[in-house]
Amino acid sequence: MPIDIATAHAFEGSRQDRRRARTRAELLAAAKRLLASKGFHATKIADIAAAADVGTGTFYLYFPTKEALFSDLVKETALRAKEEMDRAKEPVADPRAKARVAIETFFRFADRNRDVFKILFGHSAQFDELLREVHQVFIADVEENQASGVAAGAFKPFRPAIVGQAIVGMLSQVTSWWLERDDISIEEITDTVHRLLQDGIAVKENPHE
Amino acid sequence: MPIDIATAHAFEGSRQDRRRARTRAELLAAAKRLLASKGFHATKIADIAAAADVGTGTFYLYFPTKEALFSDLVKETALRAKEEMDRAKEPVADPRAKARVAIETFFRFADRNRDVFKILFGHSAQFDELLREVHQVFIADVEENQASGVAAGAFKPFRPAIVGQAIVGMLSQVTSWWLERDDISIEEITDTVHRLLQDGIAVKENPHE
DNA sequence: CATAGTTCTGAACGGTAATTCAGTTCTGAA
DNA sequence: TTCAGAACTGAATTACCGTTCAGAACTATG
To answer: Measuring CA to CA, which of A91, A99, B41, B113 is 20 to 30 A from B207?
Structure first.
């Protein structure tokens, strides 16, 4: 019977089911690609459908709304990343080692899920170009300071480009969070950020006294 | 003459000029407030005009487009912040001290320009709620690790809430930047971020050997 | 083939909001 | 008081998508 042959190496479902699954996967792949590169607002349903080589209406046979697709994509990936990090940290006891393992796992996962991570952690919406440009002003500053600090022997020889991104990213997030509260003094926020950047979070392994 | 009296204590321009300047300032103030609290897309021109107590059309007598207003606001403030930081760092020589002064100046400026800094560094667009929620998963994780690290004496006693924001902010920015390139290995990025967080950028003042 | 069901299509609909503009109100010099 | 020009108004225009839907195309069985 043709049916048997057709379904023989499929794990489940009829040919129709597989066709459906394929269309869905194509839409999802197109959506990931476009959302990651152009951001939510700039990505039109018509674009996604066209990229998946189906008609506009077909999109709605597979996803209820544009927002639902976006939300599912983002949440599902974040949860998987979190689980993977948890699994990796689980057998490790020391907090310092835990932190190290978490960071390793995080970047490995990001590397394997580039498109969605660009959505999750990227700036790509309408004004991101403008905001990027503005952040760049600060990043350039930090890069310079890092480079000259390294030259003077005051800073460790980390790549200035990475340090620039890292510090401005930290400042950006901390600032937006801090500006919404009023229970943390400017002295504490300044001091914590400064010490974090200068000396890190770790306590020295064997303090002399 | 009425004109003399009217213009006596104005630094420049006629009454009309001042009226015009006032309307413009009111629109700008309303825009800052609304953009900071609701984000770009959720802020309608009609809202801004209403908040400034003028008609919708009046907006366009002062600004060519909504985007232009947004862009001007953001760029102008960023440049002022940069200038202020430069002025503060200028007389300082040591890179470590420069970094400290830059951070102090940054937060003082942010504090004095809250509205625009919420636009500049804040997440407030349509999906920021979703993305915030997702980031929160990672932030919670870092907070936990920080708290238990402090308890174990492995980490310095920084407020876990601040450390959570700081680390996820750094990861977020670095990740989005790194994912767009292919000239930095996963080992270097992981290692730099990890060492930055653990021990900071500073070289120890007086290494024993 | 015939046909019932399934999948797909893309033009049309509806809501939203930026922008325009024809007309109104205000201002101040004469 | 008059009136030209400046400032303002908000309904109408326009553009832009997300979403729907009536029908076309395809598929698999008898």
So the answer is: A99
